Task: structure prediction
Amino acid sequence: MLEWAILPFRRYFDFQGRSRRMEYWSFALLIFVVYLVLVGIMMAGGASLAAMSGDPSAITSASFGPVFYIGVGLLILFALAVIIPSIAVVVRRLHDRDMSGWWYLGFIVASMIPFVGFIASIALLVLMFLPGTPGPNRFGPDPKGPGSTEVFA
Result:
């Protein structure tokens, strides 16, 4: 499963072809776990939910240590490092459903509209759960096909 989770990093700027559900969800799980670890580092450095609530008295009573700022820096660096592979794997996942990658831009724009954004987010989530089209489509061969060992090449 780790092989699937790091595959989007190998295909960093590749918006061509198709990606299986396994690749997408393994990558999403990897990102989630790394974010949890980084937030844990921030919490160990003095960040608390009370301090982040916006209450001025809680903010002055909290002492953010250097570990907190290291965690913030790592979180920002990781977020910048995964933005392109995240977009690319979603586009390839849409290709697996035989949809253009431009649909992702449509979902992003729709998500900025109140109430419609919630429905658009749910629709994109459902599309990520659905299986790809069997056999080759206009975006390439089926990644689940028997002769698709070139996915790991």
Summary: The helical segments are 2-10, 21-44, 56-61, 66-96, 102-110, 116-129. The chain has a mean pLDDT of 85. Residues 2-9+16-131 form one domain. Residues 66-96 form the longest helix (31 residues).
